[in-house]
Amino acid sequence: MVLFNALPIVPLLVYLSRPAHTFPTPRCTESLASVTASATNFDLSSGSPPENATVPVTGTFRVKLRFCEPTVNVPGRADTLQILVHGSTYDHQYMDPDFEPDTYSWVRWASAHGYPTLNMDRLACGESDHPDPVTVVQNPFDGAFVAQIIRLARDGGVAGAHRPFKKIVYVGHSLGSIIGNEVISTVPDLIDAVILTGYGHKIGNPGDAVFLPANEVDPVRFGDLPSGYVTSVDAEARASFYGPEGTFDPAMLAFDEAHKDTVTFGELVSVTGTKDGIVGKPAPDFKGDVFTVAGDSDQFACTEPKCANLASEEQFYPAARSFEFAVIPDAGHCINLHLTAPILYKTALNWLDRHGY
Ligand SMILES: *[C@@H]1O[C@H](CO)[C@@H](O)[C@H](O)[C@H]1NC(C)=O
């Protein structure tokens, strides 16, 4: 017993999580697509959001896309595109990290099960354009911009795809889920299914997640950005996106900290419907399938013990064909980056399979 207690927990879990498999590397095509979108944003000149959005915004910006073909052929799935949208202060690496991708990459997992994926650096992240972080990059414009990317993909216009897609599965994390929610709320016919991770309408206390202007946090990487681009201050603040010690590999946190990206002031304050701690609108006309998933120690998505609050997410999707939620053990907010990521992927695959995707 003493011997077992003396074993360091983290290396043990890291060892246990080492995958027995090696996923084949998918064939991917990267492109910088020019996308035009229009939305009605908020007037944030006072520093806080007014009740209603009133400012029309139109713009054409380049977005870095990465389309990957599946590595196995599963009939029916080749025409079902998974669109992967990361959250705030991340880029495409959240859904497809270079660090131990056999454990952590949603893209590799999806490819190995027959699904094509479209991963991206969201607008204002990574190699995509960085428009005005206050007037342009807000939740309404983000939603309209992603909707345009989905239209492009659905019609076969994304580099490397060479075909239109019959079904679209939207996979979001955190702000990426809020944006997905905005899309199915405003354009309910564009998407067949949503997997919304790290998000519930009633948002919890973000705890130690302190954000500062990115140009101060890391002048080498972000020195050219205006101060409306912010990011988490250090690895300790970053750790508040994770579960307790032992649920993640410290080397993953170090990789994440070294590759962290930004979020805009406009995004942080413009998420609609913030009254009573509610973040994001209902999607009363969305008729597809909804799957809400969070890690059991996600401080943002879980406001009740064991994330029991996620059951009440169903009320926001009254016309949905189906609603389910799942809680992944031993995981915090950045659910994909935990040692239990393979459980998340198995859970999502099972849900997709049961719903005919
Ligand atoms: C915001 O919009 C709602 C619904 O259209 C309206 O009832 C309300 O008066 C508006 N609020 C303001 C401050 O204009």
TrEMBL record:
The keyword Thylakoid does not apply. It comes from the Eukaryota. This is Alpha/beta-hydrolase. SUPFAM superfamilies: alpha/beta-Hydrolases. Keywords: Hydrolase, Signal. GO terms for molecular function: hydrolase activity. Residues 1-22 form the signal peptide. It comes from Exidia glandulosa HHB12029. Gene3D superfamilies: alpha/beta hydrolase (3.40.50.1820). Residues 83-338 form the AB hydrolase-1 domain.
